[in-house]
Sequence to fold (543 residues):
Amino acid sequence: MPLREIASKPYPDQKSGTAGLRKKVAVFQQPHYLENFLQSIFDVDTRLRGGALVIGGDGRYHNRTAIQTAIAMAAANGVSRVIVGQGGLLSTPAASHLIRTRRAAGGFILTASHNPAGMDGDFGIKYNVAGGGQATEGLTDRLYEHSKQIQRYRTLEGVYVDLERRGLQTVGSMEVEVVDCVDDYAALMQMLFDFDRIRDWFKRGHSLRFDAMHAVTGPYAQRLFVDLLGAPLSSIQNASPLEDFGGGHPDPNLIYARHLVDLMHSEGAPDLGAASDGDGDRNMILGRGIFISPGDSLAMLCAHLHELPGYRRGLAGVARSMPTCRAVDHVAKALGMTCYETPTGWKFFANLLDAGRITLCGEESFGTSSDHVREKDGVWAVLAWLNVLAATQLSVREIAERHWRRFGRHYYARHDYDELPASTATQVMQTLASTLLELPGKRFGDYTVTDADEFNYRDPVDGSIATNQGLRVTFGEAARLIVRLSGTGTKGATLRLYLERYENNETTLGWKTSEALAPLVNVAEKIARVADITGRRAPSVVT
Ligand code: VG1
Ligand code: CO
Fold:
């Protein structure tokens, strides 16, 4: 197989966002587009030369083509071994785990997460580094700078790897190992959770409905919930990964997993309802007639995790992203541990996890995970909830209600304004930013502003600084409003408005979230003027 250096010109738009590079499939199909991006990685992260590289994706359209390209380029760039999931599949957390167990120098995760797939959909790639975490801000900046100057890439010609055939193949002088996408991950889960107890819980007639939304978690759900835990096959749905995710939008939330929400509110609903996203890192948790918000799920797991086998030593600490509600802060305080507040995006948790400062972390965007990998982990969260239910013999609702009575309740919602002209989105941010200084002390209805600032983060481990991570307006313990721009969209700009309200009086714990937040919505419009500036009467999506 001849090695080729192919001349190419830079594409100036290869800046990674919150979680990797995401573009329309058509953008990735441009000549040399993916190649340039990958070559930048090989050029900049020199540890890949002579090292092992993990490759896998969420199974969306273009996955297999991109994997063949990546393998040919890895061989031409001196990678010693590629470990790739059978059929090109690896969930994001399973890829992170493989990078760790195989001591790989890095990993390519081919995914645009929950963004729609198919020919007209999105594609994406996340570069994870040794240790399994996402490339840091510093590294992605360097990759971007390099990508703007790239003039050539290296590849081997005529490479074709049979992705269905497990075992070793060779490409030039590089070994390619095709592995089952679930095996290693399933072994890890069995070390963390009490499988006997969960199996017993199912035997007693308790039930689960897990929706893989035709994305990557189908094979994981089959193995863990059905094969290993003995749940009936009807416990999992949409479990075959499809290139277009069945035309759906595998974003596990109240909008895109509506059918699951309806099921959980119907007669004969199972004990636990759950779903994951395209690449298997998100999770949604529902009980019979009750939705557990991601911020609540984080707090409730924080309160119970030490009861589960993998966490018996207790938690070192916990972290949440800044817009995530402060429910977990209350648990951390009660348990005497530190709660860190990080910018949005999983990469900011990696240093804290590596340094042993935290065991558990989460985001409002349906992401929860622990120190077992360096990504959020949807199936892990479902297993954690199953284990908590089996260990406590309580229902999801009982766990939630007990939690709220002890710690108080955070009502929470995120309002997304999608596909705004970039200038309009920027105008909202600038207008609010320019008034922040005047806000403290001002009263809006029942709420008085105590702080208003732009969120800047100093990493407590390496001292690196991330600025401009969202605008926040705090009303003491009582409430918060946050506005930030999304870094994962592929069409126009997405503005996110986050609303949080805290209540800790017995009579205020059972409200409907939309009603509890109605007064704050009015306050938010007075302060951030999103409707006024954008001309949108309502958000595109409320989760
Ligand atoms: C969104 C979420 C963020 C999450 C990111 C990646 O980012 O808000 O919490 O980490 O998606 O999730 P943004 O910048 O659009 O708000 V996933 O499931 O893509 O890997
Ligand atoms: Co995802």
The longest helix spans residues 513-528. Residues 18-19, 113-114, 277, 281-282, 321, 344-346, 363, 365, 367, 486-488, 496 surround alpha-D-glucose-1-phosphate-6-vanadate (ligand 1) (CB under 6 Å).
